[in-house]
Amino acid sequence: MRKKIVAGNWKMNTLPAEGATLAHEIVSRITEVPSDVQLILAPPFTHLDRVAEAIKDSSAALSAQNCADRDKGAFTGEVSAAMIAAAGCTYVILGHSERREYYHETSATLNSKMALALANGLRPIYCVGEKLEEREAGRHFDVVGAQIREVLFNLTPEQMASVVVAYEPVWAIGTGKTATAEQAQEIHAFIRKTLAEKYGWLSEEISILYGGSCKPANARELFAQKDIDGGLIGGAALKADDFIAIARSF
Ligand code: PGA
Questions:
Q1: What does CATH list as the number for 4-247?
Q2: 133 annotated active-site
Q3: Which neighbouring-strand residues pair with 151?
């Protein structure tokens, strides 16, 4: 059985005290969420300690939103996978489209980050997804297929087993425009099939999350799809009510 996951990507939002309050609100209502749903909170780096403290007695897990592509040393402004793990993170989001687009992350960068995350015992949440023009040109399968092959195909099966994949069409992120359940299911099935080329039966065990304007009003229909195992939530993760409602949508 694949793990059901609802992960909140807070992006560059909230100050540390607000983040701690939000985390407390979420864990105080965690009993409303089915016990087989793993909640993950991904606050900014500066809040990791406080959020770790807020969720420590709950089943919620902590994630970072990124990690450095180097081990340690003279890399001003970077935060290493080892530091993130030491701060209490179990997960790290890698390859989010905002990182690919604004910070020029390529498959080469992501291969380094992936290796370091895994070496430090973190579970990567690896994001893939096409831009609007790529979908309109009918290239979404090619784009997503390449993002999978160029990074995830370099892993051993043991490493792959600890990866979560998130499909996030760039045109749906923060736009209020969601992929239809059919569009999302079609590409989730494609991702699983692509993973099966390399990893065989293991592809059936990999959780594949949908992200992009996922909210309480559409989560139920999305999560009902055969190959959608949960969501990576941006905007709606900043309100405990919405985040909990989404996690109750399975
Ligand atoms: P959104 O963001 O839910 O605000 O569209 C999702 C994401 O980028 O992870």
A1: 3.20.20.70
A2: no
A3: none
